[in-house]
């Protein structure tokens, strides 16, 4: 007659219920994490728009506080934004110590820039000047993720007297 000790089990392994619970938890984690990782690209587009809006507000405030002209130069083909100042009234210099140039990530690109008084640009460089009196020209930037016309787009409207940026989903014109 076999003898069993209380509190000990001779079974080595997992029960079917334990395995089922583990599989359920793994599938639940997968269902939750897949949508998070699939929207990473969309976050690049939103991040780029917020970053450009922050640079605009910073340069607007710096121009007004220091009474020196500032500008933001967009290289449309390279997808790069370079902040500059004109402290001596003659030569434009980069603002590397306070705010750095920004290169758009991944497949995010600038499709068009409209600046009041200069019109619309889709190639070359576009320059937004921030005047020491506290204003900038009305400007609209169009960002797109991907190269197809059906890909995700954002429009950034820069307000002349506040330096604020309105970020809207889709392609909008604010002339």
Summarize the structure.
This protein has 175 residues and is α+β, with helices and mostly antiparallel strands. Helices cover 29% and strands 29% of the residues.
Task: Tell me about this structure.
The protein has 175 residues and is an alpha+beta fold. Helix content is 29%, strand content 29%. The strands form 2 sheets. Strands 1, 2, 3, 4 and 7 form a 5-stranded antiparallel beta sheet that branches. A 5-stranded antiparallel beta sheet has the order 6-5-8-9-10, with helices on one face. A hairpin with a 4-residue loop joins strand 1 and strand 2. It is elongated and about 100 Å long.
Measured distance between first and last alpha carbons: 95 Å
CATH superfamily: minor pseudopilin epsh domain
The averaged pLDDT comes out at: 87
Low-pLDDT segments: none
In the CATH scheme, the class would be: Alpha Beta
- Quaternary structure classification: single chain
Q: Outline, from the CA principal axes?
A: elongated
Number of strands: 10
What's the domain count?
A: 1
Main pleated-sheet profile: 5 strands, antiparallel
SSE arrangement, N to C = HHEEEEEEEEEE
Separate helix tally: 2
Helix content: 25-40%
Identify the CATH architecture: 3-Layer(bab) Sandwich
Q: What structural class do helix, strand and pairing data support?
A: alpha+beta
| Radius of gyration computed on alpha carbons | 27 Å
Sheet-strand content, in percent, reads 25-35%
Q: Could you say what the CATH topology is called?
A: minor pseudopilin epsh fold
